[in-house]
Write a structure and sequence with these properties.
The complex is a heterodimer of chains A (about 300) and B (about 40). Chain A is built from 13 helices and no strands. By secondary structure, chain A is mainly α. In chain A, helix 2 crosses helix 7, helix 3 packs parallel to helix 6 and helix 6 runs antiparallel to helix 7. The termini of chain A are far apart. The longest helix of chain B has about 40 residues. Chain B is mainly alpha-helical. The chains are: A mainly alpha (about 300), B mainly alpha (about 40). At the A-B interface, helix 3 of A face helix 1 of B.
């Protein structure tokens, strides 16, 4: 752990709003949504209260991972404009509180998942939290430009957990959902890291634009978008979804590829000229929401 | 009481109130989970 930056000391009891901020609520919303979709496309529906609890546990687990990420990366966050206002850096909370909160929330979410849904889902939830904290945050993020590629697996777990919470076993469709998020993560994060490259460079985080340059990153964004699009459409030809999903997934993926192509063609070196990158980043969030929503609609209405 | 102490007490009260709501919610959730699990076994 790097502890070169002295953090301000908290003198007041922690405000609950700061604890909430520690869980990265915006990131959590996508995690909850994909987890919910994984549960809703499963062939069996658990009782409402058990389904609700499973999603709650996914949200709490994601919150725990976010809190532990901020606990570990406080020194790094201080060097980046995007993260400099987080509660630990503003002195509204001390690091030990963040650690205790993160560990407590993580253990609670896993135990509750085991009791309410099943222990397979609880195991997957525990693996996803530990993977995000130990593999991505502590090991990969500061060491390799592949941090996002491998670390992206942590964010790909929720639909798998949602499915397993409902059924108790793994099947091809949730594995495809896992693969979609896994392949979506690099283009999503690299498009962001292109226009906040100076932040990552200042914090010495080896993001691809910092280590390999802009052109290589743009090429990798496009290259990763190709298998992502193929996997996103795959449930339709594989007979796991109907024509409705096939049409929506094809349309959305075509849009994604066009935008990735515009990023590839862009030559701007300053953030002000990186409109294609900003557009792709914004669209990538919408893409994932719409794709998963289409699968749920397909399962419940169109299928 | 100084302004600082007042703020400390205010925050402690706010957190205690929130914790009470969360614990109450958790008890209700556990009850509903138990009922649902019994229903599944039947």
């Amino acid at each position: 752990m790097v502890t070169t930056t002295a953090l301000p000391t908290a003198t007041l009891p922690v405000d609950w709003r700061d604890l909430l901020a520690l869980t990265k609520p915006r990131v959590m919303s996508l995690v909850v949504f994909t987890g919910l979709c994984g549960l809703l496309v499963a062939p069996v529906m658990p009782p409402l209260v058990l389904g609700f609890t499973a999603i709650l546990c996914i949200a709490l687990g994601a919150g725990a991972a976010g809190a532990l990420n901020q606990w570990y990366e406080a020194d790094l966050d201080a060097l980046m404009r995007r993260t400099a206002k987080r509660p630990l850096l503003a002195g509204r909370m001390d690091r030990q509180t963040a650690l205790h909160f993160g560990v407590g929330l993580g253990v609670f979410s896993v135990l509750l998942m085991g009791l309410a849904a099943n222990w397979s889902a609880a195991l997957l939830l525990a693996v996803s939290i530990l993977f995000y904290v130990f593999v991505y945050t502590m090991w990969l993020k500061r060491r390799t430009a592949q941090n996002i590629v491998i670390g992206g697996a942590a964010g790909a777990f929720p639909p798998l957990i949602g499915w397993v919470a409902a059924t108790g076993h793994i099947a091809p469709l949730p594995l495809i959902l896992f693969a979609i998020i896994f392949l979506w993560t690099p283009p999503h994060f690299w498009s962001l890291s292109l226009f906040v490259r100076s932040d990552y460079a200042a914090a010495k985080v080896p993001m691809l634009p910092v280590t390999a340059g802009l052109e290589a990153t743009r090429r990798q964004i496009f290259l990763y978008s190709l298998p992502m699009a193929a996997v996103a459409i795959a449930p339709w030809p594989l007979g796991l979804a109907s024509l409705f999903y096939g049409v929506v997934a094809t349309g959305l993926s075509a849009g994604f590829l066009v935008m990735a192509g515009q990023v590839l063609a862009n030559r701007a070196t300053e953030p002000t000229g990186m409109r294609p990158e900003k557009r792709l980043f914004g669209f990538s969030v919408l893409y994932l929401f719409a794709l998963f929503a289409a699968l749920v609609v397909d399962r419940w209405i169109a299928g | 009481m100084s302004e600082h102490e007042q703020e400390v007490v205010r925050r402690q009260r706010e957190r205690a109130r929130l914790m009470a709501w969360l614990l109450g919610g958790f008890v209700i959730l556990l009850f509903l989970i138990t009922v649902a699990k019994i229903g599944l076994k039947k």
